[in-house]
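Q: Hi! Curious about what PDEase domain-containing protein looks like structurally. Here's the sequence.
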Amino acid sequence: MDSVGSPSLDVASYYFNIYSLDDMKKVRYAVSMFSELFGMSRFDQDSIIRFTLTVRKNYRRVPYHNWAHGFSVANSMFSIIKHSKTIFKPNECLALYIGSLCHDLDHRGKNNKFMLDTESPLASIYSTSTMEHHHFNQTITILQQEGHNIFSKLSSEEYKQVLSNIKHCILATDLALFFPNKARLAKIVEDDQFSWTNPEHRLLLEAITMTASDLSASAKPWELQVKTVKVIFEEFYEQGDAEKAAGRNPIPMMDRDQPDQQAASQVGFINGICIPCYSLLYKLMPETKPLLDQCKANLARWEQLNEQQKKLRENKATPS
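A: Let's find out. The predicted structure is below.
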């Protein structure tokens, strides 16, 4: 792989279209974004390229939680960091960006509940945030491979701090942790107690920023949102099929025999998770307003579709 140039101008846009890049171009862009954020004085370019190629290889070919998703979340984090220039310190940015790129490594296309219910070996190792712990461990495994330690020039103290922060960032993508994190941060903001010098407050903001990047498909222009939702539901349905094969009933959202549930589940998801996340982020980082705006616009479209589907169901149920 030859020298990596600058990424295109719109790569810092919150609405960047990741579908315009093939898998290898995504690798180039991921390295370019790293270089643009951090420069190369503290890093070895060959190690960054090797690391990124190995990260790409360790995302499985599942419908949604694949390399394209890892790249997309890193790109959204890049955009947030670029737009809110001085909010995060350099080593916090490092943890946020690498944490985003690696946050779903080796995802099997099944959620934590499925892992617990099927008594997966991973669930016996990690009883909470099962997959997130695994994603972090995969990150460490890659860093430990020869020629892959992108942090080799950091001091031992910085190295420990960055790894600890990456773990915090990856675990924060477990939506089960989003709710308590959001509740704590919202209370601090509501009480006008948020302090940029308080390490705990900064960690909470990092956690919410990770969720915002992870869910950024909900804040992309409508045609990109719909394209992503299609692959998300394909992965849901594959889990639902596996649950049926094991003699269990999947929830309606994961049942491919109930495709008319898609709009309703999107309305619930955006209302219950995405809007609260982007609203809270906007209060502390006003530069992220485009994410909130587009998310609200998408919600309005899903609500419209949901109403149409409700009427269709009612008409079907009404005897002629």
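A: A fun detail: Residues 289-317 form the longest helix (29 residues).
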